[in-house]
Amino acid sequence: KGPRVIIVGAGMSGISTGKRLWESGVRDLVILEATERVGGRMHKHNFGGLNVEIGANWVEGVGGDKLNPIWPIVNSTLKLRNFYSDFDSVVGNVYKEDGGGLYDEDYVQQRMDRAYEVDDMGTNLTKMMDPSGRDDISILAMQRMFNHQPNGPATPVDMVLDYFIYDYEFAEPPSVTSLQNTHPLPTEADFGEDNHFVADQRGFESIIHYIGSSYLATDANGTISDRRVLLNKVVRQIAYNNRGVVVKTEDGSSYGADFVVVSTSLGVLQSDLIQFTPQLPFWKLAAIYRFDMAVYTKIFLKFPRRFWPVGEGKQFFVYASRRRGYYGMWQSFEREYPGANVLLVTVTGDESRRIEQQPDSVTKAEAVAVLRNMFPDADVPDATDIYVPRWWSNRFFKGSYSNWPIGVNRYEYDQLRAPVGRVYFTGVDSADILINRIFKNEEYEVRGKYDNQAAEVNGKVIAEAK
Ligand SMILES: Cc1cc2nc3c(=O)[nH]c(=O)nc-3n(C[C@H](O)[C@H](O)[C@H](O)COP(=O)(O)OP(=O)(O)OC[C@H]3O[C@@H](n4cnc5c(N)ncnc54)[C@H](O)[C@@H]3O)c2cc1C
């Protein structure tokens, strides 16, 4: 019998890691999941009789030289209903803040062309940068360098286009996002620039169940139902030494194993939900804390009738507020679910945090007021239903996804997925790191400068000496 491995978390990365381990011959697996479901941040939610995606929604990166491994699963194997997202057409759908209708499309197109021209200059700039990341600058610094809005976007149109290009993707503003590590964006450069929106009642999460079905039992609907996936198991402590690990859950259970793989979000690692004993070393903590967990919130609204334009090129529309990120990005579901009268508005960052903390009735009133500014002649009715996901407040996620901030280099990124003793973490190729350890006794070498030092701050030991 081979080693026992515990995987913490049954989202995409936990279930995929289990598959890689299983295929390479590691058979004694246990997956501990805090919530009552498999799927994590891929999550369908029933909204007014319709399953909508409150987490991941797009297959990003289609149509390029290399094949995005998710794409054939979505499009061929499971045949999930999906729709090409035509973001180029937003230039024709930018609404004035004050009820004045649409901005002139040619004007918006010019501003968009300029913004993308500068963005391309940023991509060229990164080609000159040292691969270590030591020359990296923020996207905003790059924009200043090319004399593009040196003091930040000045008009509502420039502001909302800047928001559309950057915040709507990274969920953080250009002032904090690393230029070098987002230009080019590996997903786009490798897999292509097309994005496909998944709108299928089985949910985007069905790909996780499909991936898991190669080694886990599923029920008649293809949903993972394996005894080795234990739900409602909130891991609170991971004790490790050079002989093994002991994982303790909130309900008082203990699980021993040879290795543990932690697949929780960066936000969870930054919180105190899981206590590591001994404390993780300084280099690991520093890597965890210096990355950013961003917040991206998809607010769904249902209306008694449709009052927004539909048809070719009308799917995405934009509210050009003077206040950055104030209910800016709108999407209609008329193509995906005709007659459902559902709109999606996306907010990020501070707006997400603000909105998570207020009652949904207030959010609904704010969003409807914005719609009334955009469509002053339409007699916009009140929304009959609203759903506001709270990824940031949820202790099992603490945000939506990570963003690469300025000031973090490649080496520190590698430290994020680096194991600490018998504690492993998910990340690019991270299952192989554990497989190499198990079968070839190979150590993954990422050493921090402070590796062997104890660190003490205000009398509190934050990292033990080795
Ligand atoms: C709003 C939103 C929109 C997104 N849009 C897209 C998109 O369009 N396209 C795209 O490709 N990606 C998108 N993403 C990102 C994508 O969803 C994630 O990258 C991916 O699902 C992460 O999978 P994971 O397994 O790494 O983490 P998770 O899905 O977070 O899985 C980790 C699991 O660990 C569990 N857990 C947490 N703490 C504990 C604990 N203490 N004990 C036990 N279990 C625990 C969690 O419940 C969870 O199930 C989006 C994410 C969000 C939130």
TrEMBL record:
<comment type="pathway">
    <text>Amine and polyamine degradation; spermine degradation.</text>
</comment>
<feature type="binding site">
    <location>
        <position position="13"/>
    </location>
    <ligand>
        <name>FAD</name>
    </ligand>
</feature>
<keyword id="KW-0325">Glycoprotein</keyword>
<feature type="domain" description="Amine oxidase">
    <location>
        <begin position="12"/>
        <end position="427"/>
    </location>
</feature>
<keyword id="KW-0274">FAD</keyword>
<feature type="binding site">
    <location>
        <begin position="33"/>
        <end position="34"/>
    </location>
    <ligand>
        <name>FAD</name>
    </ligand>
</feature>
<dbReference type="InterPro" id="IPR002937">
    <property type="entry name" value="Amino_oxidase"/>
</dbReference>
<dbReference type="InterPro" id="IPR001613">
    <property type="entry name" value="Flavin_amine_oxidase"/>
</dbReference>
<protein>
    <recommendedName>
        <fullName>Amine oxidase domain-containing protein</fullName>
    </recommendedName>
</protein>
<keyword id="KW-0285">Flavoprotein</keyword>
<dbReference type="InterPro" id="IPR050281">
    <property type="entry name" value="Flavin_monoamine_oxidase"/>
</dbReference>
<dbReference type="GO" id="GO:0048046">
    <property type="term" value="C:apoplast"/>
</dbReference>
<feature type="binding site">
    <location>
        <position position="235"/>
    </location>
    <ligand>
        <name>FAD</name>
    </ligand>
</feature>
<dbReference type="GO" id="GO:0050660">
    <property type="term" value="F:flavin adenine dinucleotide binding"/>
</dbReference>
<dbReference type="Pfam" id="PF01593">
    <property type="entry name" value="Amino_oxidase"/>
</dbReference>
<keyword id="KW-0964">Secreted</keyword>
<dbReference type="GO" id="GO:0046592">
    <property type="term" value="F:polyamine oxidase activity"/>
</dbReference>
<comment type="similarity">
    <text>Belongs to the flavin monoamine oxidase family.</text>
</comment>
<dbReference type="GO" id="GO:0006598">
    <property type="term" value="P:polyamine catabolic process"/>
</dbReference>
<keyword id="KW-0560">Oxidoreductase</keyword>
<keyword id="KW-0732">Signal</keyword>
<dbReference type="InterPro" id="IPR036188">
    <property type="entry name" value="FAD/NAD-bd_sf"/>
</dbReference>
<keyword id="KW-0052">Apoplast</keyword>
